[in-house]
Amino acid sequence: MTPIVSIIMGSTSDMPVMEAAAKYLDSMEIPFEINALSAHRTPDLVAEFSQNAASKGIKVIIAAAGGAAHLPGVIAASTTLPVIGVPIKASMSMDGWDSILSIIQMPPGIPVATVGINAAQNAAILATQILAVADPTIREKVAQKKAALAEKITKANEELKQIKFKFKTN
User: Fold this and answer.
1) How many CB atoms lie within 10 A of CB 117?
2) Contact 56/74 with Cβ under 8 angstroms?
3) Which residues of 22-156 form beta strands (DSSP E)?
4) How far apart (Å, rounded) are the C-alpha atoms in residues 93 and 117?
5) pLDDT per residue over 8-28, tens digit each?
6) I need a surface site. Which of 57, 82, 131, 162 has the fewest CB within 10 A?
7) ∠ at Cα 156 (150, 157), nearest 5°?
């Protein structure tokens, strides 16, 4: 099985957050890989990965980083593939704001789609939606997931109707 999504994190300490992306991709039956690469500690490996990802069959990259959070941008600078950045609220970060600002504020020509702090599942959902543009099977799975979300809210509202208060009107 050849991976089509690559989850890259700056450190294995990011894995507890990035596990949500892996679980989502797994649930959607999308082949993926997970690696740790550091823009600061292994810059040559990051460049090699970025330049070769497309030829290995990767179609979307999810890159997570905390603190200075340069990894998603460094990857985006060396590939034509879409890169989704996940800012990590790291132990040495400023509540994750340093990470989100480092990832979201890219120079013209080097875009990185950015999700919320620690929002690895949303990164995987966005990666899946990107893949769905060219793959009807994935598109149908995305539609089913969206329908399940709507059904969950419909059910919640039915349950809320059962809660009684003196001045509640619905």
Assistant:
1) 18
2) no
3) 32-36, 60-66, 83-88, 113-114
4) 11
5) 999 999 999 999 999 999 999
6) 162
7) 95
